[in-house]
Design goal:
With about 500 residues, the chain is α/β, with parallel strands linked by helices. It folds into two domains: about 5-260 and about 400-490, Alpha-Beta Complex (Amidase signature (AS) enzymes), CATH 3.90.1300; about 305-385, no CATH class. The protein has helices at about 5-15, 20-30, 45-60, 105-110, 155-160, 180-185, 220-230, 275-290, 305-320, 345-355, 360-370, 375-400, 425-430, 435-440, 470-480, and strands at about 40-45, 75-80, 115-120, 170-175, 190, 210-215, 260-265, 295-300, 405, 445-450, 460-465. Strands 1-3-2-4-6-5-10-11-9-7-8 form an eleven-stranded mixed sheet, with helices on both faces. Helix 8 (about 275-290) links the parallel strand 7 and strand 8. The N and C termini lie close together (about 5 Å). Glutamine binds next to strand 4.
Length: about 500
Amino acid sequence: MFRVRDQLRALIDGSKTSQALVDACLARIARDDRGDDGIGAFLDVDDAGARAIAAASDARRATGQTRGPLDGVVVAVKDNLCQRGRPTTAGSRVLAGWRAPYDATCVARLRAAGAVVVGKTNLDEFGMGSSTERSAFFVAKNPWDRARTPGGSSGGAAAAVAAGFGGAGLGTDTGGSVRQPAAFCGVVGVKPTYGRVSRHGVVAFASSLDQVGVVADDVFGAALLLSAVAGVDPHDATTSTRPLPSLLGDDVGGAGVRGLRVGVPRGLWAEGGVEDVILRALDESCARLAADGAVIVDVALPHAAHAVATYYVLATAEASSNLSRYEGIRYGPRRGPPEGGGAELGALYEATRALFGAEVRRRILLGTFVLSAGFYDAYVAQAQRVRRRIALDFHDAFGAADVLLLPTTPTLPFRLGDKTSDPLAMYLGDLFTLPASLAGLPAASVPVGTTTAGGPTTLPLGLQLVGRPFDEPTLFRALRALAVDVTLPGDVT
Ligand code: GLN
């Protein structure tokens, strides 16, 4: 891997320059990311830009003017986040060739902190998917086993971190798109509380759920990145004015998780459907946390079982509205008749929207249907009521627990192609990440070990923690205790 921690140490002790880090990273990308067998984590690599930013960082360091811990550190950014002057496709042909005219707030903040963005990472089109197989350009593969998915939709970001193409990355998480790929790739993925990080410059999918999240190769890296990008932003009225407290080692004195109440909502998987190896990892993790002084308690989330149906009504409804902006005029190359209105305008819309992939079309159609006058009450209004119930369940659970522990995914990373012909099977895999999204809560996935239970290859195991609203510090306290370092077999640092 290419840990943020190690990059930082090398920069501070002078053993490596940021330019040397960038060169090493670019060499790895050239070797492992390209071609049919390559991992396919990046849609765009900015060699020249990254080298120039690294040179500027090195110059600052030489004169003692570094901007903080991320100065000179190599990171990657999901390709649905605008980076000024760079291609931003959101994994869609509709945006192929479009260059963002401004930085997303999260990207601007990373850059202001001196981080070196090496490229834009692959994703399911508009973030709609759980395997990165819905990218309009190419599939991303899991660095642990290239026949398997890295997860999605931030599969490129998680794969890039796992493969050592950068120590950390920004992703987005609408219903699990940071946490699920993090679990599948053996890295840390954090979705903060809704409102912690600005959505300005994020290509919108479902605005009431979309959040920028971070992936990193350890909890420390995730904390640094999240701290850099969080905070109120006048460009996004849903951002919170609450300052983000320190996520790093407020328990250095040794508090650890002693006395922390960890709630486990076992009812959510009582009916089965979760692979044994994941439940075993959960039990072992409970035992480990208990040995460290945490108190494991049973909690119930009775309405969370409806999260999949609720999410796929609300997210598609919002998507059908958000994606109506792609009409061939404001974004991307114009593909219809050049002039005129009337029938020609219709042809322009059609030519543009023909570029949407099958999954995006399915969601626009579903979303438009559930929003239509005759069905709104039965679907959207009902889903909003269930969403509220799910949030209340969490509120109740947090009376008895300080943080919740549950699987991130019901399965190990599945094989490429296994679920592409069965959208419902793909959606059901999101069961454990959707409840926290619907409730707007901070949640994260961390590696807790590896297994060979899935076949001949070693695969990572991840588990999820969910925190109270705006209580990222407690979430990180538990994350630090839960995380186990896992390293890709054969990895060289
Ligand atoms: N897998 C979920 C979906 O397909 C979540 C995606 C996301 O979080 N962007 O919608």
